[in-house]
## 1
Amino acid sequence: MGRFRGPFPHLETRVPQLSPPTPTADRQRSQFFSTFAAITAIVVFLLATATIVAVSAKTNTTTSTTSGPIEVTLTEFAMTPAALTASAGDVKITVHNKGSMVHNFSVPALSKKTADIAAGQSVTLDLGQVSAGSYPFLCEIPGHADSGMKGTLTVGAAGSSSDAAMAGMDMSGGTTDPNDPAALKAESDKMQASFAAFPAKTEGTGNQPLTPTIAADGTKVFELTAAITDWEVSPGKIVKAWTYNGMVPGPWIKVNVGDKVQVNVTNNLPGAGTDVHFHGIQAGFAADGVAPISQDIIPGDGGKFTYTFLADHAQVGMYHAHNMGEMAVPNGMFGAFEVGDMPLPTGRTVSGIAIPKDLKITQEIPMVLNDAGVIGLSLNGKAFPATAPVVTNVGDWIEVQYYNEGLAIHPMHLHEFPGIVIAKDGLPLDSPYAMDTQVIAPGERYTVLYHTTEVGTWVWHCHILNHVEGPDGMLGMVTAIVVK
Ligand SMILES: [Cu+2]
């Protein structure tokens, strides 16, 4: 029985159930790579070691206001984090230019600025004794601040983290004076008022199904173009996102088990090379998308590369940039990639929840989590109140694919309805389980069924509370399921 998947009318013919992966010509071919793989493993180990050293050096970028300089990273066109905090006193800022152009870092109110910093270079700027206050900073190269290279240094209260992954988060645990009822009422009113804007209309929708062209031999051919494009994350907040086909998340790609797949990538990023890794899809070495190991980098400004593989069993994967992943992915270069459907536990009872024998899924919803870069705390590329609600009819069963493309874990919680987790990372569970809060770590995917049995508007959100609320009201990773 075919499952109706609203946005995928062109994929209506379903391969009914998962069959165990069988060896294919494609897989057997990969045996020939075994010797090469051994050499590769050594290279990977060396690279990994280098990465660990680099990463541990980087962990110190979380702002420490009492010792050592604050760190800020310049790219085209962002200052990350855009909100820096420090305690009053001697403030030093280490500025890393991780972009491909020359940038500088200026704090006009303090008459302090760096010299121009070449791509790849770092400079530490001593701001001297700084008193409490708010100090805008920017790159003074013409046009760069207007494109997003600006931010604010807040000096005053005891310092809090300004790690990129926490951009926009309120880490204060409440700044309003608990002995000031008027201030508390004002904050409470702001919180209540923030609901009114939901769901806000913004420009652009991510996850749009990508329709392939069909080659003479039946191969499904998809076109992906990487570029830096404007993206409206929340009303009026337009960022320079790193996108596939101009949207965040990139287009939703879904193929059937047995399809031959070709993905043609054009890299229109300025300067930056890229590659595309099909995370969780066993696409074979040649399509692993890890430059310089499995392929040459796809150069920016128009480089092209073609990935081909056989989609030989059901999988829930995602695609994203591997090169410069820590910048490219949070900034928007990610998307959902599915092969077939996860098998449904029809006719079974899971934690007391009976799943009908003739279960019909009325909607499949990709739910892509992010928390960093220019996109920040978001669901499917949008931050509350621009997050899209899911509308169902009472009695519907829906299937949600959670994907975490961010840098932090997110416990996703839907009010009222328990979820039944039927697959983890595209691997069907032998024992599906029920939950109402599912932690999703970076890189993970969970396939979850929800039976929406009660009319209402049910809030659906990350349960790390500063991912969803700040002093000005609701933000980030909140949406709702509206049951009619
Ligand atoms: Cu979260």
## 2
Amino acid sequence: MRIGIDCDGVLRDFIPDVVDLIKEKHPEHADKILVPKSWDWEDWLPFWSEDETEKFVFEDNYEKLFGPEANIIPSVLEDWPILKAWAIKNGHELVLVSAQREHCKELTTEWLQRWGIVFDEMHYTKEKWSVDVDVLIDDSPEKLDIFNERSVAYGRPICMKTTWNEESQKKYMTIERLSDLVGRVFG
Ligand SMILES: [Mg+2]
């Protein structure tokens, strides 16, 4: 089995890092940050336009948010070794499938190295459905839907539960942490 795994929202604690950085750099907005319920920045960061948030994240602070300094989701620290050992024992391959922007790819690779997350194969692509994997673990409603429709390997989407993908949780098999795969999904 080839297991596709997304980075942001599945391994890297991207959204909480964005929130913390806004609080640090723009304390005047701290109490206006809402719970992210969608993929649209403006829905939960209503004080900025989409362009302003894009600039904050992908121009002004991308090294901090995507490089080695960025945080890992706490449960991943515990679960990655479990998943890795299970994959080796059962002959599964762990494949990174991540839609990084061009200037964030190398930083993401450095970030993965910093946390000791080693994949059998790595793909940086927005067309996640084009990667030959049997399942894709992702937090993006759009990526999950497109993968479900078009996966070249007729793969199955698996939703990583977050506040911004409640609809996907109703449609697809959903996990709360990576180690759920071991017992629940393939147990
Ligand atoms: Mg993601």
